[in-house]
Design a protein that fits this description.
Order of helices and strands of chain B: EEHEHEHEHH
CATH architecture of chain A: 2-Layer Sandwich
Order of helices and strands of chain A: EHHEEHHEE
CATH topology of chain A: Heat Shock Protein 90
Helix content of chain A: 25-40%
Structural class of chain A: alpha+beta
Strand content of chain A: 25-35%
Largest interface: A-B, 27 and 21 residues
Radius of gyration of chain B: 14 Å
Distance between the termini of chain B: 18 Å
Oligomer: heterodimer
Shape of chain B: globular
CATH topology of chain B: Transcription Regulator spoIIAA
Radius of gyration of chain A: 14 Å
Number of helices of chain A: 4
Number of strands of chain A: 5
Largest sheet of chain B: 5 strands, mixed
Largest sheet of chain A: 5 strands, antiparallel
Distance between the termini of chain A: 16 Å
Number of strands of chain B: 5
CATH class of chain A: Alpha Beta
Number of helices of chain B: 5
CATH superfamily of chain B: STAS domain
CATH class of chain B: Alpha Beta
Helix content of chain B: 40-55%
Strand content of chain B: 15-25%
Strand order of the largest sheet of chain B: 1-2-3-4-5
């Protein structure tokens, strides 16, 4: 079930995506450390949209898997895409000025992490944290 | 845009970083801290992160870079008040803050500064300048 959608157009939308993530994580009963992991992951991936694709959207969904429920967040942009996903997932790799911790770091913070990308078409990252 | 206040007390700048700053605001704050350190000639800078409920790689890098830049200016910097949930998340992300002094709170941050030669050997605090001029 979709809970909320945040459009990323301006820098301040990264802050809004973070605030939304925090509120939803609290509502869903995540503990403090998981709340922080989720908010941090949302911050990293929203910034990626703003930095590389200029705009895109973040979709927050509640998901179920048998007994467990979780928060799933999709980051969708129609930006330049990622040339080599394998490289992008390597720690220390960055095409920008970043430290290259972003994508591999986010993967470590979350339970599930899926990425798909096509050059000139865009990138979609879906992350999930289970309760 | 929110402006983070920078306090000057006894030869020390104290900055309490707030939540929900944009990346631009964070970079402006870094600039303000360095300019104020230079202009007021303080010997210590305390960056309090206890209000923050998230530090991502960008913010973490700006904070630790600021501490190193302050040292290049000739002052000492301490980062104080990091919460456990943030420490866990930063290390899981793969981000560490090597060569940066940290303390559990402002009180202990001042104690660490007092142990630093640059800070403690500085002449007795000159007349404390009022913040606000820039």
């Amino acid at each position: 079930m979709i809970l909320c959608i945040v459009e990323i157009f301006h820098e301040k939308d990264i802050v809004i995506a973070r605030q939304t993530a925090r509120e939803l994580a609290i509502d869903m009963g995540f503990g403090l450390v998981d709340q922080t992991r989720i908010v941090t992951a949302v911050s990293e991936l929203s910034r990626n949209i703003f930095k590389y694709a200029k705009n895109g959207k973040v979709i927050f969904e509640s998901v179920e898997n048998g007994k467990k429920n979780g928060l799933s967040i999709s980051f969708i942009d129609k930006g330049p895409g990622i040339e080599n996903i394998e490289d992008a997932m390597k720690e220390g790799f960055s095409t920008g000025k970043g430290m290259g911790l972003g994508l591999p770091g986010v993967k470590k913070l979350m339970d599930d992490f899926k990425i798909s990308s096509e050059l000139e078409k865009g990138t979609t990252v879906v992350i999930t944290k289970w309760r | 845009m929110k402006k983070v206040p920078i306090l000057i007390i006894n030869n020390t700048l104290i900055i309490c970083i707030q939540n929900d700053l944009t990346d631009t605001a964070i970079l402006e704050l870094q600039n303000d801290i360095l300019n104020k350190t230079y202009k007021t000639r303080v010997n210590g800078v305390i960056i309090d992160v206890s209000e923050l409920d998230m530090i991502d790689v960008f913010l973490g890098k700006v904070i630790s870079d600021t501490a190193k830049m302050v040292r290049l200016l000739g002052a000492e910097a301490v980062i104080v008040g990091m919460k456990p949930n943030i420490a866990i998340t930063l290390i899981e992300l793969g981000f560490e803050m090597p060569n940066v002094r940290t303390a559990i709170d402002i009180d202990n941050g001042l104690k660490i500064l007092n142990k630093c030669e640059k800070y403690s050997s500085a002449k007795e605090p000159e007349v404390t300048e009022l913040p606000g001029e820039s």
